[in-house]
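Quick one, tokens below:
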């Protein structure tokens, strides 16, 4: 039986740019950055500080795939499914993201279940940052 999700892949155009964005602007921690053989692609993962058992895999399709497979995966950059992230202080996170130059599509809004905002990574993929009501 499936027990849990451990990794979600985000397609990126540039390994170093993506790693710098997720660690520098979003505050994720680098968990892994390893070459998969000489001249091969890199296995790069980052994790939210509060959830070290979950990793985002930053995968560059141009280095991992060939031909049509690379083209199909590359077309998904900036169009991937929205990833939902948890916040314990959405106002501070909003200011931090804004100050870091992160594109905010939808600022903090009040909802029946809590508050959220929507932002984009450097390639246009969307993320929903949510803070649930206490209790």
């Amino acid at each position: 039986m499936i027990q849990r999700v451990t990794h979600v892949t985000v397609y990126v155009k540039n390994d170093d740019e993506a790693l710098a964005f997720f660690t520098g602007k979003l505050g994720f921690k680098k968990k892994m950055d390893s070459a998969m053989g000489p001249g091969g692609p890199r296995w790069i993962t980052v994790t939210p500080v509060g959830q070290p058992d979950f990793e985002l895999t930053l995968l560059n399709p141009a280095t991992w795939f060939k031909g049509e497979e690379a083209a199909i995966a590359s077309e998904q950059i900036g169009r991937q499914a929205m990833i939902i992230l948890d916040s314990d202080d959405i106002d501070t996170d909003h200011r931090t993201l804004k100050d870091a130059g992160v594109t905010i599509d939808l600022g903090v809004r009040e909802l029946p279940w809590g508050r959220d905002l929507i932002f984009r990574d450097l390639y246009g993929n969307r993320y929903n940052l949510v803070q649930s009501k206490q209790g």
